């Protein structure tokens, strides 16, 4: 398994709904970095990389987009379109985010602070890296 959808607690209230995500409880790691993307132009994709160590939890807090995960042998695509669900992305998985709806916001909770050495940014390098892990 290289990606897993997790449904978070949704507290329904007539004044507006609330969703909570707690580290080491709802998300299986300590959150060390949070970032979000928004105003993604139509037809543009994001991601296009893998992490050697950092796991991520990706949520469409507004709108929708598709996340495609690739472990070097198989691909899985996930439509993220509920702010109370997120996608846990394991390490050594190539990820691409695309098909962003207008007004979408992608929130990422990351296990590690930014470290360039953790990234694999070329798909051919990712394929070689995966071969070496086997």
UniProtKB/TrEMBL annotation:
InterPro entries: QdtA_cupin_dom (IPR008894), RmlC-like_jellyroll (IPR014710), RmlC_Cupin_sf (IPR011051). The keyword Kinase does not apply. Keywords: Isomerase. Residues 4-130 form the Sugar 3,4-ketoisomerase QdtA cupin domain. Pfam families: FdtA. This is dTDP-6-deoxy-3,4-keto-hexulose isomerase. GO terms for molecular function: isomerase activity. The keyword Isomerase applies.
């Amino acid at each position: 398994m290289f990606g897993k959808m997790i449904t978070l607690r949704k507290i329904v209230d007539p004044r507006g709904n609330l969703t909570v995500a707690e580290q080491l409880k709802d998300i299986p790691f300590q959150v060390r970095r949070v970032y979000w993307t928004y105003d993604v132009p139509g037809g543009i994709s994001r991601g296009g990389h893998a992490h050697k160590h950092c796991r991520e939890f990706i949520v469409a807090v507004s709108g929708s987009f598709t996340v495609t995960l690739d472990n070097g042998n198989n691909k899985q695509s996930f439509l993220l379109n509920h702010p109370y669900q997120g996608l846990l992305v394991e390490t050594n998985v190539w990820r691409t985010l695309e098909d962003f709806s207008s007004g979408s916001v992608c929130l990422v909770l990351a296990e590690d602070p930014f470290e360039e050495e953790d990234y694999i940014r070329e798909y051919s390098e990712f394929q070689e890296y995966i071969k070496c892990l086997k």
